[in-house]
Design brief:
The chain has helices at 2-19, 32-38, 43-49, 94-102, 121-130, 140-143, 200-203, and strands at residues 22-25, 62-66, 114-115, 118-119, 148-150, 160-163, 172-178, 181-186, 191-196, 206-211. By secondary structure, it is an alpha+beta fold. It has a six-stranded antiparallel sheet with strand order 5-10-6-7-8-9. A two-stranded antiparallel sheet has the order 1-2.
C-alpha cells in the first residue's frame, strides 16, 4: 500500500508541474513578438525558453511559454489557444517601440554600418526590430518584401515605413513611432533621429509601409 501511495503522489506531482508549463501552437499570422506580448514575456525570454536562434516561426510549431505563460488570457489554464492568429493591436505598446528605437538614436550615419560605431537606415531598423524578436533582411529593398502591407491611414507603432529618396524605388526605411513620427538613420543629418513624416521632404517621397509585428 505504501508503494502504491508513493506512486500516486509521484504521478500527482508530475501532473502538477506539467500544468505550470504552458504551451502554444503557432498559427498563421503569429509572430514571436505578439505571442510574447500575450504571454507576458519578453521576446528574448521566449527565444531562450525554446532554444531558438531565430525569430522565424513555423505554423504548427509548439512553443514553451514556461510557468509565466499559465495566466495568459486571464484564466488559470495552461492552454493559451486564445491568443489570436492575427497580429495583436499595439496601441498600448508605443512606449515599447519608442524605447527600442531610442537605444540606437544619435548614432552617426555610416553606409553599410550595423552597430554603435555607425549605422545606416536598414541596419537601424534591423537593430530596433531585433530587440522585439523580429529578424529582418539587411537592405531596405529586401525589408519592403516582408510582413504585410499597411495603408498610410492605418499605421501603428512598430510598422516599417519606406521612402524613395534616390528616384529609383525603395531606398530608405524607418520605424514608425506613432503620431506621425518615425525613427531613422538620416544620411543628410548624419545620425539616427526622430522626424515627422509630414514634412514636405518625407511626405513626397513616401512609398508604403509593412507590418512585421
Amino acid at each position: 500500500m505504501n508503494a502504491l501511495r508513493a506512486l500516486i503522489l509521484t504521478a500527482a506531482a508530475l501532473l502538477g508541474s506539467s500544468a505550470l508549463a504552458a504551451t502554444y501552437t503557432v498559427k498563421p499570422g503569429d509572430t514571436l513578438y505578439n505571442i510574447a506580448q500575450k504571454a507576458n514575456l519578453d521576446p528574448a525570454q521566449l527565444l531562450h525558453l525554446n532554444n531558438l536562434s531565430s525569430s522565424t516561426l513555423q505554423v504548427g510549431q509548439k512553443l514553451n511559454l514556461g510557468a509565466g505563460g499559465s495566466s495568459v488570457g486571464g484564466g488559470s489554464s495552461a492552454t493559451v489557444g486564445s491568443i489570436p492568429a492575427t497580429p495583436v493591436s499595439r496601441s498600448g505598446n508605443g512606449n515599447t517601440i519608442r524605447a527600442a528605437a531610442s537605444r540606437y538614436l544619435n548614432i552617426r550615419y555610416m553606409l553599410g554600418g550595423t552597430g554603435a560605431g555607425g549605422i545606416d537606415c536598414s541596419g537601424f531598423t534591423r537593430a530596433v526590430l531585433q530587440q522585439l524578436g523580429v529578424s529582418l533582411p539587411r537592405t531596405a529593398r529586401a525589408q519592403y518584401g516582408v510582413g504585410n502591407t499597411v495603408s498610410r491611414g492605418n499605421l501603428q507603432s512598430g510598422d516599417l515605413v519606406f521612402f524613395n529618396t534616390m528616384g529609383r524605388g525603395v531606398s530608405h526605411v524607418g520605424v514608425y513611432l506613432g503620431n506621425g513620427q518615425f525613427a531613422n538613420a538620416n544620411s543628410y543629418n548624419g545620425r539616427t533621429m526622430i522626424e515627422a513624416m509630414t514634412t514636405t521632404y518625407w511626405a513626397t517621397r513616401y512609398v508604403g509601409a509593412r507590418r512585421v509585428l
